[in-house]
Amino acid sequence: MSVRTLPLLFLNLGGEMLYILDQRLRAQNIPGDKARKVLNDIISTMFNRKFMEELFKPQELYSKKALRTVYDRLAHASIMRLNQASMDKLYDLMTMAFKYQVLLCPRPKDVLLVTFNHLDAIKGFIQDSPTILHQVDETFQQLTEIYGGLSAGEFQLIRQTLLIFFQDLHIRVSIFLKDKVQNSNGRFVLPVSGPLPWGTKVPGLVRTFNNKGEEVRKVEFKHGGSYVAAPKEGSFELYGDRVLKLGTNMYSVNRPMETHMSGASENLAAQTQESIAPNPLAKEELNLLARLIGGMEIKKPSGPEPGFRLNLFTTDEEEEQAALTRPEELFYEVINIQATQDQQTNEELARIMGEFEILDQPRRSASKGDDLLAMMDEL
Amino acid sequence: MFRRERSIPLRGSAAALCNNLSVLQLPVRNLTHFGVVHGPSAQLLSAAPEGVPLAQRQLQAKEGAGVSPPLITQVHWCVLPFRVLLVLTSHRGIQMYESDGSVMVYWHALDAGDASLVQAVFARGIAASGHFICVGMWSGRVLVFDIPAKGPNIVLSEELAGHQTPITDIATEPAQGQLDCKPLENRDCVADMVTADDSGLLCVWQSGPEFKLLTRIPGFGVPCPSVQLWQGTVAAGYGNGQVRLYEASTGTLHVQIDAHARAICALDLAPELLSAAEDTFVHIWQLSRSPEGGYIEVEHCHGECVPDTQVCGARFCDPSGSSFAVTGYDLAEILRFSSM
């Protein structure tokens, strides 16, 4: 649909990922300097100029599979490791949070305010790193340049594109269930009260005009909701009161992070349709992915800094259990690299993989080509 | 007062598009056809009066170049004098089928020609006018297809220029209206089609071998996702939740309703007006002509809240407006309501 959606999707999901990682790092008592390093490394990778250039090119949205691959890479941009089950859970939480934010945006244009909320919080994480702060500010400028002038109609298309991407995802998230923003069937609560979108009048009035344009009749009707006019418009400046709370950090240190898998996905037929997408499409997507990830300049770990494993669950046993019991329809399959015979794509991926080192996993010393394919398949 | 009737299950949930429900009433056969867009596919199903589903079929958007499978933007039945065609618009082109979706009779590929890299290319907005089918484009152009009484010999006869931004919806005077209407004094000014776009601009046309632009009704900063035309009155639903009624031939604003708290996604008119929006509400309004000045008057009849559902389509299911159906984003069923 809209070819301007990917940057918004990526930045907001990335923002949610950072909120969750920050909370888990503190809950797991990871030493302050290590935690800061992880967040700094991820944020500087996210906002790397070359990567942002690729991201902001007008393009269609990637499939869920492809996007998940990007976040896998991003989450491992530092000394932190995540097991498959934890990575799955992280991605579940990220996607449901942003789905909720898009759905509840009063105006389609408010998704930009949600993005700015995420960026504001990200700047809070890297206050002592002026270089990275500058990168984030540059991205801010780019967002303003590109989205500042879009019409309401173009934002409506972006919103529809995002909602199509999130269609049929109904994973239940504890923090949402507790706050009563999600029902037990996985659907979000759409309140019929509260502040209206900026530019919408309180429903309930019918005005009739004559041929000269004079109002001749004014009648009220009961509209069923309980709305109030918006107090003011959120700020789209570099600094300002966004007014909207969507996109701010809802994870304080001790808020629960469980997700519930059973009954989470409906419309199995619709979902299997997506997971058996034909391979010729995967190849073109791979080209795009290679360019995108290629722009992610992942720093090689400097010095003898030992890595550590972050767990999104409360215990290791819980993590193992989650891996075993994840419903099949919710498997995040990663792009099947072996499906492509394209020499050029393989070379490009080989170049990228050459820049990337996984720390504490032993490698079979077969030929480099096999190694690389195997490594990518393991993601 | 309306009550909830039995829902009709869908194979796939409805996509977050506007005007995402088409209904074809076949009273002679005691059947109602429903069409809903899921994403890259659309579902057609037919149901008996009590909502019992009888048959269903899925149609896919015709593939083309691109990273992901093309998405369908709208599905709509076009009732022409001698036949009914089902039209499907997508990001690749326009597909026309026999009314049961069994055979594709025509395919028109979109020409992305002068679209800039940042523009999304798609067709959207479908309506039948006499023996023409009109389809809107991302560019603001409206394609007019000449449809023969039978067979696949469909010809693109005209391209209407009136809009600069993507077309959202097209409406025409219902066929019954055209048959019944008394001969009008000034036949030169029969407004029988209205087109709407993302900027909120409405264009009112007179159909014919060459379509003629009669009036333009400017927008005011928000899209007009849904529009209807009935007996010379244009009903337009806007992105800020307002419904406005205009005199089609002159473009004069007659009624302004602060109807919804979110963007309107669907309107239907027959003879009551139905408005549905992303605020979870469906409202029904009674239209009448005031005895003194002949002005259009509107009275609110009924409001229905579909809890926690971002409505994306709504239509009356019978000519008297005593029943209607609703679709919602992420919902894998068609909700039905009928008056008590």
UniProtKB/TrEMBL annotation, chain A:
Membrane-spanning ranges: none
InterPro entries tied to this protein: OSCP1
GO cellular component, one term: basal plasma membrane
A family per Pfam: Oscp1
Alphabetized GO MF terms: transmembrane transporter activity
BP GO terms, sorted: xenobiotic detoxification by transmembrane export across the plasma membrane
Superkingdom, natural source: Eukaryota
Protein name (record): Protein OSCP1 isoform X1
Native source species: Delphinapterus leucas (Beluga whale)
UniProtKB/TrEMBL annotation, chain B:
Localization: Cell membrane; Cytoplasm; Vesicle
Secreted keyword on record: no
Domain WD repeat-containing protein 54 beta-propeller: 1-339
Keyword annotations: Cell membrane, Cytoplasm, Fertilization, Membrane, Repeat, Ubl conjugation, WD repeat
The organism's place on the tree of life at top rank: Eukaryota
Keyword Membrane listed: yes
InterPro entries in the record: WD40/YVTN_repeat-like_dom_sf, WD40_repeat_dom_sf, WD40_rpt, WDR54_beta_prop
SUPFAM superfamilies from the UniProt entry: WD40 repeat-like (SSF50978)
GO CC aspect terms: cytoplasm; plasma membrane; vesicle
PROSITE patterns: WD_REPEATS_2 (PS50082)
One Pfam family here: WDR54
Main location per the UniProt record: membrane
WD repeat spans: 257-288
A biological process term (GO) from this entry: single fertilization
Quaternary structure and interacting proteins, as annotated: Homodimer and homotrimer; forms tight forms of dimers and trimers. Interacts with IZUMO1 and IZUMO1R/JUNO.
Annotated function: Plays a role in the adhesion and fusion of the sperm-oocyte membrane through its interactions with IZUMO1 and IZUMO1R/JUNO. When cross-linked to form dimers and trimers, it has a regulatory effect on ERK signaling pathway activity in response to EGF stimulation. Colocalizes with the EGF receptor in WDR54-specific vesicle where it sustains the internalization and controls the degradation of the EGF receptor after EGF stimulation.
Protein name as it appears in the record: WD repeat-containing protein 54 isoform X2
Lineage of producing organism: Eukaryota, Metazoa, Chordata, Craniata, Vertebrata
Gene name as annotated: WDR54
